[in-house]
User: Which sequence fits this backbone?
C-alpha cells in the first residue's frame, strides 16, 4: 500500500472522530446521569429502539424479495426500477416525509381511503415506522442485491438441473449465499432507522412517547437545554456503536 494514502485516510478518520469527541467536551459529567435518565430521554430511547426494530423487520420482509427480483429476474425497465429503489438514499429525508404525508395524509389518495375506513397514519407511531422503513430499506436492498450479483449463479442453475424447484433452490442455495451480506445489511438498516430525523418529523411530528424518537428529542431539547441535547446525542452515539460493535462487527466487515 502506498504510504501517501495514510494522510487522507487519517484526515477522513479525524473528520468522523473529532466532532464526536467534541460532544464530550461540551457535556457536564456531573449532570450526565441525571440528563440520561430523564423521562424525555428514556421515552425517546425506548421509542427509537422499538420502532427501528420494527422498521428493520419490515425492510427485511419486503426489501429482501425486492433485492432478489432486482438481481435475478429478467424484467424490462430493471434499471429504472433500481433507480427508484435508490431514491430514498439521495433525496433529502424531508422530501420523503412530505411524499408519505401527501400519499397517506387525510387528503392523500391512499390516506383518504384509510380515513374512510377509520384508520389514520400521520402523527402516529406507525408513521414513525413507515418513515424509518422508507429511508432505511434501500440499504438492505442494495446490500443484498450486490451480494447476489457477485455470487456465482451457477450454484442455483446446478440445483435447478438436479430437480430442485424455485422455492427449494431459494431456501437451500440462494439464502445461504446471502447470509454474510444479510448481517451487514440488517445492521446498517437498523442503524439508519435509528438515526432517522427528517422524514419522521415531517410525517409523524414530534409527540413525546408517541412519535418523538431520540433524534427528534435531541432537536427539540436543544432549543431549551443544550446540555441535555448533548447528553442525548452521546446516548445515540453509544447506542450506534453498540449496534455495530456487538451485533455487527463481523457482519459489517462482510465476513462469515
Assistant:
Amino acid at each position: 500500500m502506498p504510504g501517501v494514502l495514510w494522510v487522507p485516510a487519517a484526515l477522513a478518520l479525524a473528520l468522523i472522530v473529532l466532532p464526536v469527541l467534541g460532544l464530550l467536551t461540551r457535556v457536564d459529567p456531573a449532570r450526565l446521569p441525571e440528563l440520561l435518565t430523564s423521562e424525555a430521554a428514556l421515552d425517546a430511547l425506548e421509542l427509537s429502539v422499538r420502532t427501528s426494530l420494527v422498521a428493520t423487520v419490515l425492510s427485511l420482509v419486503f426489501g429482501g424479495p425486492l433485492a432478489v427480483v432486482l438481481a435475478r429476474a429478467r424484467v424490462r425497465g430493471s434499471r429504472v426500477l433500481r433507480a427508484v429503489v435508490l431514491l430514498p438514499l439521495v433525496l433529502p429525508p424531508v422530501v420523503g416525509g412530505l411524499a408519505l404525508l401527501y400519499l397517506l395524509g387525510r387528503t392523500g389518495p391512499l390516506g383518504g381511503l384509510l380515513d374512510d375506513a377509520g384508520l389514520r397514519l400521520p402523527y402516529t407511531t406507525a408513521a414513525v415506522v413507515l418513515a424509518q422503513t422508507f429511508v432505511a430499506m434501500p440499504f438492505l436492498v442494495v446490500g443484498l442485491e450486490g451480494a447476489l450479483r457477485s455470487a456465482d449463479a451457477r450454484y442455483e442453475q446446478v440445483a435447478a438441473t438436479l430437480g430442485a424447484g424455485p422455492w427449494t433452490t431459494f431456501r437451500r442455495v440462494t439464502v445461504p449465499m446471502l447470509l454474510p451480506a444479510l448481517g451487514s445489511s440488517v445492521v446498517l438498516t437498523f442503524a439508519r432507522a435509528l438515526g432517522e430525523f427528517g422524514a419522521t418529523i415531517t410525517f409523524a411530528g414530534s409527540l413525546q412517547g408517541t412519535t418523538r424518537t431520540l433524534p427528534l428529542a435531541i432537536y427539540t431539547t436543544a432549543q431549551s437545554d443544550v446540555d441535555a441535547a448533548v447528553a442525548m446525542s452521546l446516548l445515540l452515539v453509544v447506542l450506534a456503536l453498540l449496534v455495530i460493535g456487538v451485533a455487527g462487527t463481523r457482519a459489517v466487515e462482510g465476513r462469515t
The two ends are 25 Å apart (CA to CA).
